[in-house]
Amino acid sequence: MLQFQPPGFGHKIIHTSLGAMVYYTQTNAPWAMPGLGGAIADTEDIRPLLFLHNFGGGASAYEWSKVYPAFASNYHILAPDLIGWGESAHPVRDYKIRDYLSTIAEFIIQTCRQPVTVVASSLTAAFAIRLAIVQPNLFKALFLVSPSGFDDFGEGAGRRLPLSVINTPVLDNLIYILGAENEIAVRNFLQSFLFAKSQRVSQEMVEAYLTSAHQPNAKFAALAFLRGDLYFDLSLYIQQLTIPTVMFWGEKAQFTKIKLGRRLANLNPRAIQDFYAIADAGILPHLEIPEVFIGLLQRYLS
After folding, report:
1. Do 96 and 229 meet the contact criterion of CB atoms below 8 Å apart?
2. How far apart are CA 44 and CA 110, in angstroms?
3. Which residues 6+ apart lie within 8 Å of 172 measured at CB?
4. Percentage of the chain exceeding pLDDT 70
5. Sign of torsion, CA 212 32 68 16?
6. Using CA of residue 105, residue 111, residue 113, residue 116, what is the dihedral sign?
7. β-strands 19-26, 9-16 pairing
8. Cα–Cα distances in Å, from 256 out to 47, 55, 227?
9. Which residues lie closer than 8 Å to 36 by C-beta, 6 or more apart?
10. pLDDT on residue 178
11. Which candidate, 137, 155, 168, 170, places its Cα nearest to that of 242?
C-alpha cells in the first residue's frame, strides 16, 4: 500500500505474536525534519497519534491517509495495517476478537513511549474501547468514528450472506473474488453502502482497496468479518470505559445507523464527552470528506 501513502510517509515494521505488522509514519521531509548533524529527528518522542482502520474486503491504513498528514507536524503518526489486512502478515487462521485485542496492544507497547491518542473507526473503534477498559494505562484519549460491535443491544447489524454460503469452501472463495477482488463490485460497495455521495469515490480509492484485497491469504480476515466471527455487543462493555472519548457519526451511515450511536453514547456520558453528527456523510466520513473530519479532529485535539 506504500504507493498510496502521502508524501513524506514511509512504512516500518514491528513483530507481533501473529506476525509482522506494517505501519506508516513520518520518514522523510517535510515531516521528518533533520536533527543535529543532519540526522532525522526522533519522532518517537513526540505525542503519538494512532489511526486504526475499519474492517471489510480490501481494508487497510489507506482509509486514514487523507487525514493524518494534517497532524504530522505536531504528532508522531502511526497508521498500521492490522494483522490480516493491507501489507501486514496474513496468517491462515480463523480470526477471533482476541487476535486483534492482543496485536493492537502489542503494537501500542512497541511503538508508543507514552499513552496514545487513538483515532479509529467502526468495529476497530469498538475493539479500542474494549482494550482501553482492560489496559487504560496505554491510552490518553479516544476519537471514534461509528464505533460498533455489529451486534449491539443484541441487534445484528445485518449479515449480508447466510452462514451456510459463507462457510462453503468453494463458495467462500468465489464470494471473496467476486466481492473484494472485482473492481466493479468494490466501486459499487463504496458508492452504495459506505459513502453518502457516490461521486466522492475516486479511482485511487478503488485501486487501494483492490490492492489490499489481492494480498495473499487476504480472504481469511475478510471472511471472518463477513461471517460475524468478530462481532460482539458493545453495549455490554461501554459503561466500563473511563478514557475520555469523543464519538463521530456520519448522519447517513448504513449498517450502523446514527440512532444506534446515540444510544451507545448515552450509556456512558461521563467518559463519552461529546457526540458529533457529521452531515452528508456515510460510515467513512474521514475518507469521504476528509477536509471536514480534519477540521473537527483539530478542534477536539486542541
Report:
1. yes
2. 11
3. 165, 166, 219, 223
4. 87
5. positive
6. negative
7. antiparallel
8. 31, 14, 17
9. none
10. 58
11. 137
